[in-house]
Amino acid sequence: MPGYEMFGDEEKKEVQDVLDTGILLRYGFEAQRKNIWKSKQLEVAIAERLSVRYAQLTSSGTTALTTALASLGVGYGDEVLVPTFTFVATVESILSVGAIPVFVDIDDSMTMNPVAAEQAITAQTKCIVPVHMCGAMADIEKLLALATRKKILLLEDACQSMAASYKGKPLGSFGDAGVFSFDFVKTMTCGEGGVVVTNNEDIYKKCHGYSDHGHDHLGVDRGADQHHFIGNNFRISELHAAVGLAQIRKIDTFLLIQRKNYEILYNYMQTIPQLQFRKIYDSAGNSCTFLGCIFPTKTITEKVVEKMKLENIFAGGFHYYNNNWHYLKKWEHFKKAHSLYPLNTLQVASLQKIENRNFSISDDLMARTVFFAISLVWKEEEIAIRAKKMIAVIASCLS
Ligand SMILES: *Cc1c(COP(=O)(O)O)cnc(C)c1O
């Protein structure tokens, strides 16, 4: 998962270029910047790597989601389908544009179940937001077909799945728009940063303006820019983009190492017959940031986690069922609509109904699944030692 594990001279060189000019803003200052345009260069590199026409960088994955939703025209009264298992940011961005998050069960891919998604569609549904969780794909083929058939928008939250693909096509490039995060713990990092990618020129232009106060960037200088709509400041800085530029040049190296390390760990874990694995729709496209293991029961899972923690081998393991950040069960603040800015009455009414809904399928899967992060810096011998210890713990909990 983490690009910060391979951080060094390349990043320093790119950041130094920016420091040498002192121009930290991505727009303007043509005379002083000595033709250093790290954000623009990174946008070109991202668009190229993901085979999309347009990329608009922002300050984070969260602001990229908000920018994308606003640019897609999602807002007051619109329902947006989102899976029960994601990072809180997906839901925050939907609420921040005035729309209503509608939660949808996951399946054993640990991503949005397309059948459940179809059942959740109403006349108010404007957009589906599948989340390509933990480095691998949602059922994007079925979800895209559903969105097309129902004439609703598709926005891919690919924050955790940079450079992953489905049948050779990069995740994030299927929908009306796709979003990635480059925060500190993502596959590649800018420190903080995010991007919206799209093939639609109109959506791109809106993202471009929205993320910088609605500036059209057509003026002779910033003061002469026109504002055709209300925007925000979600800009990335040149310093952050510089880090990202060094990181994206290494993304295929990251993938190669992750896939190799994943395979070794997976082969060991496969020797346990009672263990299931998260369903992967296209294993060739898995970015292999995590290995998702599904245990037979909740009790066994909790025992395994407990014992691995005791024996100091749980580092990089995530039992998201009992974590406050990624699963609906613990999101009391959403269910109680505790917001510092006033939510609209439609949002509040919908949030307060979550508690009465039945998410037993998600609950069961989440309770039994543990994700193990795949490190870029593991040595082969290390993985073997680690895997053998893990197998021993799991075996003792199964017996
Ligand atoms: C990280 C993440 C985000 C938000 O990205 P930030 O850059 O941290 O704001 C959104 N969705 C998912 C699924 C994420 O993992």
Could you walk me through the main structural features you see in this protein, from its secondary elements to its overall organization?
The protein is an alpha/beta fold and 399 residues long. Helix content is 39%, strand content 13%. The chain contains 14 helices and 13 strands. It has a 7-stranded mixed β-sheet with strand order 1-9-8-5-4-2-3, with helices on both faces. Strand 4, helix 6 and strand 5 form a beta-alpha-beta unit. The chain starts with 8 loop residues before the first helix and ends with a helix. The relative contact order is 0.16. The site of pyridoxal-5'-phosphate (PLP) has 14 residues, from helix 3 and helix 4.
Short descriptors:
399 residues, alpha/beta, 7-stranded mixed beta sheet, 4-stranded antiparallel beta sheet, 14 helices, 39% helix, globular, binds pyridoxal-5'-phosphate
Structure, briefly:
The protein is 39% helix and 13% strand. The chain has 14 helices and 13 strands. The protein has a seven-stranded mixed sheet with strand order 1-9-8-5-4-2-3, sandwiched between helices. A four-stranded antiparallel sheet has the order 10-11-13-12.
